[in-house]
């Protein structure tokens, strides 16, 4: 998957769509006017750009996501690991745990994820 980059404004807009989808483009204009103080052309410009990036879809005035919020954040997490830790998840975890204290609950949850992954992948 290609590197998807959303600026702060684009991400705020995508969050609005994810929270309200499916949403009519007219209602989306009203929401963006209320929450972002945007005019109609701004809403349609940002919508068009996110459609071009493959994040959203505008089908006859109904706006939905092509990429869910969860998928987007999973992709961004993978990008961080790839870009800053040469694709090494253990290197990322080592860097994270060096700077952040993990609770016993955090460790248990991480271990559960590892155990589930092993089971699901016959490892």
Helix content, binned percent: 55-70%
Approximate strand percentage: 5-15%
Q: How is the CATH topology of the largest domain named?
A: Arc Repressor Mutant, subunit A
Lateral strand order in the biggest sheet: 1-3-2
Structural class: mainly alpha
Provide the CATH superfamily of the largest domain. Answer: Winged helix-like DNA-binding domain superfamily/Winged helix DNA-binding domain
CATH class of the largest domain, named Mainly Alpha
- Secondary-structure element series: HEHHEEHHH
Mean pLDDT: 93
Number of helices: 6
CATH architecture classification name of the largest domain: Orthogonal Bundle
Q: Please tell me the total number of domains.
A: 2
> Compute the gyration radius: what is it?
19 Å
Gross geometry: elongated
Q: How many β-strand runs? A: 3
Main beta-sheet annotation: 3 strands, antiparallel
Distance between the ends: 26 Å
Question: What would your notes on this structure say?
Answer:
It is a single chain. The protein has 123 residues and is mainly alpha-helical. The chain folds into 2 domains: 62 residues, Winged helix-like DNA-binding domain superfamily/Winged helix DNA-binding domain (Arc Repressor Mutant, subunit A), CATH 1.10.10.10; 36 residues. Helix content is 67%, strand content 8%. It is built from 6 helices and 3 strands. A 3-stranded antiparallel beta sheet has the order 1-3-2. Strand 2 and strand 3 form a beta hairpin. The longest helix has 17 residues. The protein is elongated, with a radius of gyration of 19 Å. The mean pLDDT is 93.
């Amino acid at each position: 998957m290609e590197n998807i980059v959303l600026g702060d404004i684009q991400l705020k807009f995508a969050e609005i769509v994810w929270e309200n989808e499916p949403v009519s483009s007219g209602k989306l204009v009203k929401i963006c006017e209320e929450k972002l103080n945007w005019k109609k052309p701004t809403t349609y410009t940002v919508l068009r750009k996110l459609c071009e990036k493959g994040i959203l879809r505008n089908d006859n005035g109904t706006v939905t996501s092509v990429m869910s919020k969860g998928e987007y954040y999973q992709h961004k997490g993978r990008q961080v690991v790839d870009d800053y830790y040469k694709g090494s998840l253990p290197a990322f975890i080592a860097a994270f745990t060096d700077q952040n204290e993990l609770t016993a609950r955090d460790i248990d949850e991480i271990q559960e994820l590892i155990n589930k992954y092993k089971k699901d992948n016959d490892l």
